[in-house]
Amino acid sequence: MKTLKKIILLLIFSGSVVQLSAQKASWIWYPGDFDIYMSNVMQNRRTERGSFFPVFWKMDSHYVLVDFHKEFNLSQPEEVKLFVEGTYNVKIDGQAISGFPKSIQIPAGKHKLSLKVYNQAHVPSIFVQGKTIVSDETWLSTFEDKEWIDASGKTSDKSGTTFVSAGSWNLNDPNQLPSQFKLPVIAQYAAKTEKTNNGSLSDFGKETFGFIKVHGLKGKGRLSIYYGESKEEALSIDKCETLDNLDIDLQQKKDSIMPLSKAFRYVNFQPGNGVSADSISMLYEYAPVTERGSFKSSDAELNKIYDVAKYTFHLNTREFFIDGIKRDRWVWSGDAYQSYLMNYYSFFDAPTVKRTLLAQRGKDPVTAHINTIMDYSFYWFLGIYDYYKFTGDQKFVQDIYPRMQSLMTYIDGRKNKNGLLEWMPGDWIFIDWADKLSKDGEVSFEQLLYARSLETMALCAKLANDTNGATQYDQQAKALKAKIFELYWNQQKSALVHSRINDKQTDNVTRYANMFGIFFDYFSPEQKLAVKENVLLNGKVAKITTPYMRFYELEALCAMGEQPYVLKEIKNYWGGMLKLGATSFWEEYNPEKKGTEHLEMYGRPFGKSLCHAWGASPIYLLGKYYLGVQPVTAGYKTYTIEPNLGGLAWMEGKVPTADGDISVYCSKKEIRVSSATGTGKLRFKSKSKPVVKNAEVKEISKGLFEVTIEKGRDYEVRYSG
Amino acid sequence: MKTLKKIILLLIFSGSVVQLSAQKASWIWYPGDFDIYMSNVMQNRRTERGSFFPVFWKMDSHYVLVDFHKEFNLSQPEEVKLFVEGTYNVKIDGQAISGFPKSIQIPAGKHKLSLKVYNQAHVPSIFVQGKTIVSDETWLSTFEDKEWIDASGKTSDKSGTTFVSAGSWNLNDPNQLPSQFKLPVIAQYAAKTEKTNNGSLSDFGKETFGFIKVHGLKGKGRLSIYYGESKEEALSIDKCETLDNLDIDLQQKKDSIMPLSKAFRYVNFQPGNGVSADSISMLYEYAPVTERGSFKSSDAELNKIYDVAKYTFHLNTREFFIDGIKRDRWVWSGDAYQSYLMNYYSFFDAPTVKRTLLAQRGKDPVTAHINTIMDYSFYWFLGIYDYYKFTGDQKFVQDIYPRMQSLMTYIDGRKNKNGLLEWMPGDWIFIDWADKLSKDGEVSFEQLLYARSLETMALCAKLANDTNGATQYDQQAKALKAKIFELYWNQQKSALVHSRINDKQTDNVTRYANMFGIFFDYFSPEQKLAVKENVLLNGKVAKITTPYMRFYELEALCAMGEQPYVLKEIKNYWGGMLKLGATSFWEEYNPEKKGTEHLEMYGRPFGKSLCHAWGASPIYLLGKYYLGVQPVTAGYKTYTIEPNLGGLAWMEGKVPTADGDISVYCSKKEIRVSSATGTGKLRFKSKSKPVVKNAEVKEISKGLFEVTIEKGRDYEVRYSG
């Protein structure tokens, strides 16, 4: 918005007569293609002890031949500059211009400008820059032209071409080709360096990510660099997860940057015989997102948890939302789904959500679940509806809806005789990293996610104007929900059982389906209370040891008003990691483990990721359930603020939205709110009638008060909490 | 076969102990991927007057991430060299080797060697060369590994991965990366050059194809080269179809090769002000296929027709079978289908057929007909069964069968309420280039091709061991055939009508469905005779003016024993082009046109291709219906030889097969046959009992005799024809 204003301002001051529609030109491509391409680039940067370690699922590719066009009505002729990544042709009103013009003249009047681009290696992309003609998402694109000519040269008058609006990442520099896209870097230095063997061990002070730069590298021989998220890992040259082994042949001293970025806190730098260097530093690589969300409270430990969570999340926010920075650096749908939610309470970076959703889904045909994981297909659907709810971006839902349909068709095609999903060859049923977690038979958790995904399909069908689809998905969702309660609800246990095997309920009760059932609002109030007591607060039901599932467990408890309990859990669990020296949050944390056991996973001594996106969930929980801000209708058109101190003396923070922030301060006596968006309802309990400056307060039920919040004003409430 | 023997011999002489399975290593890739990739490269070489002119249908892409593996049992350790196009890892028995090794040691015993390759720009490919371990089509490949690990690092034991055998083009040079693949060239010179304006006009003596080489190019300015299949075209700098416009800045004389190969006979070379050159020559670019088929007869004009047809066909046989060398240079399925048949009677180059079939089909999902043309989808199916019939290569049918299924599913999904196909948005109903040819309603020709394609599906389903599919497709084909006769056969006209509109037969009778009905053997003997008289030999039914449909028209007449009539037609039609100076056969030839009218098409004065593959059909007709050789069972295991002089005094020629040639000489008194394959039945008519050396002769019906031909022997028959 700011940029647009600036341009218009500039143009007004420079005296040019321009249309108000003047916009910044962007590189554009077939929607989703750059996302798929760039996710291939990013995900193929994984290495394991020097070996290339690509994903195991299908990697899709961009369309190699794409046609772009837009119609313009010019009041005067206009010179238009063309920048293209690929081999191309240019047509004005269907007439080709010879060669590969870099600039063309478009006459006044109504004209159609088309470019067709072929590029196998990179994404076919164009950047068009005239006074009023600019490339942006209003251009139309297609990967197949269903037009032809007859023997006389006449073009068919019955086109079957499907045009869709172009995709873009708002890359605004015509001289920077999309394929050259890189995240920014800044130089950083180790906090401490000590000599070890022939080399040195550097401690960068906390978990970080980037390229190691070797200053004054010289000589002939082998250079080895061992990376460690822990000191133990960096020193374990045989077992550290990532390393560089390079053969050096430099007669003169030269500063050299390692080819691949890595995650580390410690770097064990070992030049072999004949190789020397002056020092090392790093180029910290980061996503240029803005930290908009904030949280501060009377509890210093909680504040530290919030800060470390935000840092953990920022490190894992890259070209896409990835799982963890050391090992996979892949786009895992279940992990990303949590990142979306954390993002809405921190960066509110909508483009990264869209990119990640597009990259995960790839292209048709669907040959497997997303990441091959059944549950991960479902999170993908849920992520789209959440995206709409938080951003109000209906166009994206419409654009991606066909790809939602084809994934759901794939899933529907895998139902068993009971209309339920169970393992089939090629399916990974993940749920969580947990010992002895059964994946056999018809697992209730998967059916629950299936039902929720069908509800999502029904909602998105409506947004995409597919009325029949909406009805059909809605019916399918209702039928499945009814079946879930008929088949999995155990009256005696007052809980959903974990699974059915051979058409019979198993005895097993786990937390998964039960906690999701709560915040999906699938239970009756009585069932909800029973589930809370019998499952969530029941120490006998197997405990969760990953922050991944703790996210949902704590969310379920918050949704039932258990903020004081959850606050203690957050302090115990995340505070527990901090006490062990964590500078970012982990892939898994089991308080019962000791010492270097915390570093192990997957049967490898340093297999565990110590900086995992799903470790950052306090960002989300504190924003949504303590500051208590969440959208009611899409894009915060309406929303609620229900502050819950959960035992804190005071807290304050900001929740970002597309239009600006919502600020909340809350102590036991005072609530202050201001908002840059929509219409909010501030709700709070008070023992006596609260005093509100400049606004009315309603008592909507006994002891529960509500103030309507309009944007651009400050609200102050005095109450007795 | 020869190469294999040579290797084994060499190894025996060198005293090494090797397994007999020792083979030449090839570059391998995921099947179909290099075909798709290279067809993109080739088809994107089209230009029109200096503008890039790509295809309008969807271009697919290779899988960017591919896993290859094979298990070996080694009697002793072996060093294996690795060549890879892409970023890769190497695993022995699942254990990754660090870095990007170029050579590895594999221990004795049973081991699995795996390489996983990522390449966005080019096809992920490997070349593995050890003593016994070599990369070839026995390796397995996949684009998605459906395997995963649990938290302990244990790999899932229930894989859902589909492995298919790798693809190859038998590229045997490890240092020549597949992406560098190029057809060979040889230097050739103009027959005659004359000065024009500042430049020169060169006549290369006949239609040809390649890169123009400019000798001693020097200076600063514009160089223009105008290409012509005719002199008129080369001289028409405003209307010639292809040209080069280059900005030159050379201080020293330099020999320069033009970037894109072109089709031409005449080259109009025009250096602009400040630019000069000594001379031009060309690099003739060609497919290195062997001209195995041959035909010679007592008729010199027919011999010339055969030779020009073979040259025309060779020019259009490139990386794939293309339509014509000047303009499109694309892989059109209907054109290629005829090329396959011509190929079986000339080069017998099976790889080019496979490549072309794979390139046309591309990848799923199917979003349009092949080349967007309904009829062209059907020719694709027919081409696969023909391929099997001529080569006996069942494995290819099995490999491609899933892609046949998905294309047929797409087509089945487009049936109308009557179970028939008619135009839908995006469909091009081509049939032929012909004036006033109606494409409205339910066209009989399309239904006929649909029925034949379903029969093909049934046959291929059997070959691919899909028993249910075979039954289902067979039933579908039978039902459709019955419906065609019920709905389109007009008793009064004794012919199939052209179409139905609004559920009613039209009055229109065209040649298309009727001639295909003959060689599909869909008619009863009475219907066949009636169709021949009422349609094929009926001057009132609109004439065919493309060699494309003349192919089938003449085939239908040959199939009914009308060789004398067809011979006259061949001499008139193809001889007619020769009389007009053709050095290759044309896209269209209408004897009623005059002078430069013959060069026009698509509303452009030089729009017509003067070297079009479908112009070469005499190759096929003379081999199959005059020499009379055709397979009965797949791969010429059994076959027939039914020579038909059609009025010639004598003829002789060779028909190639996978195992060697079948030679036929036939005069009115003598037939000589020898064969390198299968078991043949030589059948001929004789007024008296024939004399056969070294073999028995049977009279199978009155005046019709049969001799069984075994391979490796010479047969001589004296008869009275």
From TrEMBL, chains A, B:
Keywords per UniProt: Signal
Signal peptide as annotated in the record: 1-21
Positions of the Alpha-rhamnosidase-like N-terminal domain: 66-268
SUPFAM superfamilies listed in its UniProt record: Six-hairpin glycosidases (SSF48208)
UniProt keyword Chloroplast present: no
Domain Alpha-L-rhamnosidase six-hairpin glycosidase: 291-624
Protein name: Alpha-L-rhamnosidase C-terminal domain-containing protein
Species: Pedobacter jeongneungensis
